[in-house]
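FORM 7B: Structural annotation worksheet

SECTION A. Query
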Amino acid sequence: MKELNINLKIQFCDLNELPKEDLELVETAKEMTLSSYAPYSRFQVGAALRLADGRVFRGSNQENAVFPVGLCAERTAFFAAQANAPEQPPVCIAIAAQTAGRFTEHPVTPCGSCRQALLEAEVRYDQPIRVLLFGTEGVYIVPSVKSLLPLTFDGSELA
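SECTION B. Predicted structure
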């Protein structure tokens, strides 16, 4: 039996250490938590997705009493971008979450469905999407979605 070691390099920094462009994306994600519709979980998530041409698409989680019908903030932003600018690859996404009126201390990561949807974009455009995960203690800077989902499944498996 072999043992596999998967090593991931993820940076961690204070919010004020981010470059201006990344800081603006994180601040937009934080603002988007306010447009969340989360009456059941009370867990408000916001996302901001920057495309290669600089446009930013925003999203927030939208819950429903029939839980599978809702949609996460990350996919809300991503699908809006794809519907409006399918020729533009996404280059970076920022994610923030709050509950009870306070941002989470630890950065919150995307769920498995969001990771898979964003991974599909990395494969489609053949380039990584940086991920900025905000928490009040600091920001994780992840170089690509593949880093969040290292044992990937994509369309090449279906051939």
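SECTION C. Observations
Residues 62 and 68 are 11 Å apart (CA to CA). The radius of gyration is 16 Å.

SECTION D. Sign-off
Analyst initials: ____
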